[in-house]
């Protein structure tokens, strides 16, 4: 995965290193970039089915995000901001999310991210939703 030239991610000195939690502190986006705003993607497959397992939903939500990005000629490499909603958030779910983010982004810096624990999402059984902003 080649990082985008439309933005630069950084972790300023004096702030803790967030890489172990799969995010970066700062994204600086070039003014001439084309922006994509991707609605929250859940863990449902193309038939609308949800796995009961958080890790599987997280992986599917990332796959859905990749499909939405690809429809506009983009990839995860162009994502600089995530909003992550997790039902019944826990350290275990955070570790599962980090594993899925590491699988998706590899060793590259992860986008800035705000994780918001929520009591429920739009659909019964939905455990995770990922909203993204990308720059091309």
Automatic annotation (TrEMBL):
CDD domains from the UniProt entry: YjgF_YER057c_UK114_family
GO cellular component assignments: cytosol
Membrane-crossing segments per the record: none
GO molecular function: deaminase activity
Gene3D superfamilies, per database record: RutC-like
Family: Belongs to the RutC family.
Designated name of the protein: RidA family protein
Organism the protein comes from: Pseudomonas putida (Arthrobacter siderocapsulatus)
Highest classification ranks of the organism: Bacteria, Pseudomonadati, Pseudomonadota, Gammaproteobacteria, Pseudomonadales
